[in-house]
Amino acid sequence: MKIVIVEDEPRAARQLENLLHKSTFDFEILTVIDSVEDSVSWFQKNISPDLVFMDIQLADGLSFEIFQKTEVSAPIIFTTAFDQYAIQAFKVNSIDYLLKPIKQIDLDAALHKFSRSQSPSNPIEANILKELLSSMQTPQERSGILVKEGSGFVQIRISELLYMYSQDSITFGITHNKRYIIDETMDQLFDSLDHTKFYKINRGQIISKIAIQKIEPYFNHRVKLTISNPRDQEFIVSRQKTSDFKDWMNK
């Protein structure tokens, strides 16, 4: 069984590979791809694999955008850290979906389901995809978030957050005068935010539009941001996201 993994988090990709090795299935991982752009290029140039594991939120956008730009005939098992996507992903004719962190028992069940499927995967339905993309681009606005303070939790307003970042597997949220620990992964957090107000500029940083003070060109076709209360953080928009980030700033 030839497998392609589409995942922008190296740690998550390694975890999936380790779980696959613990399964009873014979497989070969052809490639691991971390962006919509590179996925489109790969599927256009290569023979279809037997199965694709595909994260929903990639470095440069939602993986559903891949199907708008090229044909993917292989069955898809979607993976996601935030379960609002689970039912929606299933409607896009995937074999299954897996919630992160992925458990061995769930992966094995998805693989057995794939092996029992005798019919090829259905093509992605354009009308379902259109509705799906629309719903994800306009999430219900979240007003508050629980953060750790001392031995307990307090709620702060989302509007107070200037940016969020991940360090040593801990998610931090920064306001004008304080740093908080947020008990969510970066993917879970970003998926729950209003994407017209917050942008995930790279794998480890989410910024609020109101916190951006300056945008400057940076090497390798990237841009560097000056942000309120930077706290020794450097804010570089990844190369894959630079064009989309500029479009986001213009809205």
TrEMBL record:
<dbReference type="InterPro" id="IPR001789">
    <property type="entry name" value="Sig_transdc_resp-reg_receiver"/>
</dbReference>
<keyword id="KW-0597">Phosphoprotein</keyword>
<feature type="domain" description="HTH LytTR-type">
    <location>
        <begin position="145"/>
        <end position="251"/>
    </location>
</feature>
<dbReference type="Pfam" id="PF04397">
    <property type="entry name" value="LytTR"/>
</dbReference>
<feature type="modified residue" description="4-aspartylphosphate">
    <location>
        <position position="55"/>
    </location>
</feature>
<keyword id="KW-0238">DNA-binding</keyword>
<protein>
    <submittedName>
        <fullName>LytTR family DNA-binding domain-containing protein</fullName>
    </submittedName>
</protein>
<dbReference type="InterPro" id="IPR046947">
    <property type="entry name" value="LytR-like"/>
</dbReference>
<dbReference type="InterPro" id="IPR007492">
    <property type="entry name" value="LytTR_DNA-bd_dom"/>
</dbReference>
<dbReference type="InterPro" id="IPR011006">
    <property type="entry name" value="CheY-like_superfamily"/>
</dbReference>
<dbReference type="Pfam" id="PF00072">
    <property type="entry name" value="Response_reg"/>
</dbReference>
<dbReference type="GO" id="GO:0003677">
    <property type="term" value="F:DNA binding"/>
</dbReference>
<feature type="domain" description="Response regulatory">
    <location>
        <begin position="2"/>
        <end position="115"/>
    </location>
</feature>
